[in-house]
Write a structure and sequence with these properties.
Length: 116
């Protein structure tokens, strides 16, 4: 079993920045792909981006060039750096660890609100 704990959410003005963290309870980042998801109010959960065990990243078009995913394997931590935030980025942000189709773990989420 793996526990994931997100932190770093909060209220930020449009154009501002936040960095979210997701800490895993075990050393898994060298094996698991780590995803960031978000769920805007009243909408479905959507993938924001992912980082592979080897460090390859990909992002949804809406955040490309504004968000960046990184990780520190030694700290069992994945980061989501969010810059140039927009009101439509308001959502609960979740991290997910996955290994193939058999293993999947989710964090509890952290709220990000972009508003003036």
């Amino acid at each position: 079993q793996v526990q994931l704990v997100e932190s770093g959410g909060g209220l930020v003005q449009p154009g501002g920045s936040l960095r979210l963290s997701c800490v895993a309870s075990r050393s898994i980042l060298h094996i698991y792909t780590m995803d960031w998801y978000r769920q805007p109010p009243g909408k479905q959960r959507e993938m924001v981006g992912a980082i592979s065990p080897g460090g390859t990243t990909n992002y949804r078009d809406a955040v490309q060039g504004r968000f960046a995913i990184s990780k520190d394997n030694d700290k069992n931590t994945v980061y989501l750096q969010m810059d140039k935030l927009k009101p439509e980025d308001t959502a609960v942000y979740y991290c997910r660890a996955r290994l193939g189709e058999r293993y999947e773990y989710w964090g509890q989420g952290t709220q990000v609100t972009v508003s003036s």
